[in-house]
């Protein structure tokens, strides 16, 4: 399928792996947090960042799975610096606990990768009574990012090394509801569709990255925020799809990326010198791309920010 691909302006293609797009990059001295690092492209992202010398904190819901991934990475890369911390993005209390634990450690933070997500689940409310896709894929990451911004700003001011926030979206964001985000129907059980709920959360990811980039630029701080589409990757995110999961796993090697390819755009945007200073953009296949027109609406991004801020108002960082 990819035999006749042409390289994009970056010099890479959709077939490039995370190893390839970071080859020769020295990440020593950087600290990164990766959500959802216990499986799939998240685990590969952690491995490759560690391979390049980055000190990585895996923020995971399943601590046992996270520890197993860490052990495998350290076995392969004895010098790897990887820690595992518990984080359930569907719980705002868990997000606050994680952020408090990390910031109290006094560790620097250069890179934040919002990777974790759910897809196609039956209608479910989170522990905070918010539809699960929106709660996990967007709102948990929104709160996490805001709570960690002080640490990122402090790190930037002390080191003068650019900070980077990478939000993993999906090209599925193009297929969200006509209005983009149904603010008044987030918890609508009657009209619920798992795929549209997922697409809505993914357009929220792009809108979040764009509005965050605008605010960071306005603040004059050297931290960028971008969203990425990893490609269609055969991972456990499809576990809710029943029969279709098996079908996707069977045909995946012919029409989908593997995890090494799926993690590449995230790692490219997180580490590559070509991306220095670029903010508020959308990447796919290791190159700049264009998000949907709906995802680029400035007013919609601001409305989503305000809506999200109201939902997490209790302890959210209010410096933006």
TrEMBL record:
Q: Which InterPro entries match?
A: NAD(P)-bd_dom_sf, SDR_fam, TIC32
| Signal peptide segment | none
What's the name of the protein? Short-chain dehydrogenase TIC 32, chloroplastic isoform X1
What is the gene called?
LOC113734566
């Amino acid at each position: 399928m990819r035999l006749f691909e042409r390289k994009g302006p970056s010099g890479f293609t959709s077939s490039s792996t995370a190893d390839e797009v970071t080859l020769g990059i020295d990440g020593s001295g950087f600290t990164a947090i990766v959500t959802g690092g216990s499986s799939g492209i998240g685990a590969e992202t952690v491995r490759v960042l560690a391979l390049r010398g980055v000190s990585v904190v895996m923020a995971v819901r399943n601590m046992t799975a996270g520890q197993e991934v860490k052990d495998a990475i350290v076995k392969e890369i004895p010098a790897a610096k990887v820690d595992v911390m518990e984080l359930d993005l569907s719980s705002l209390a868990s997000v606050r606990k994680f952020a408090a634990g990390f910031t109290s450690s006094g560790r620097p933070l250069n890179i934040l990768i919002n990777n974790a997500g759910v897809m196609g689940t039956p209608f479910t409310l989170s522990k905070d009574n918010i539809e699960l896709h929106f709660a996990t894929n967007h709102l948990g990451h929104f709160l996490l990012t805001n709570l960690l911004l002080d640490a990122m700003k402090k790190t930037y001011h002390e080191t003068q090394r650019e900070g980077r926030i990478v939000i993993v979206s999906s090209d599925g964001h193009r297929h969200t509801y006509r209005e983009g985000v149904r603010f008044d129907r987030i918890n609508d059980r009657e009209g619920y569709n798992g795929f549209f709920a997922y697409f809505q959360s993914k357009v929220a990811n792009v809108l979040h990255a764009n509005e965050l980039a605008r605010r960071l630029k306005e603040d004059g701080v050297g931290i960028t925020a971008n969203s990425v589409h990893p490609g269609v990757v055969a991972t456990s995110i499809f576990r809710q799809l029943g029969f279709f999961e098996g079908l996707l796993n069977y045909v995946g090697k012919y029409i989908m990326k593997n995890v090494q390819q799926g993690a590449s755009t995230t790692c490219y945007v997180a580490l590559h010198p070509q991306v220095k200073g670029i903010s508020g953009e959308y990447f796919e296949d290791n190159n700049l791309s264009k998000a949907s027109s709906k995802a680029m609406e400035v007013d919609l991004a601001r409305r989503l920010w305000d809506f999200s801020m109201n939902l997490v108002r209790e302890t959210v960082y209010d410096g933006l």
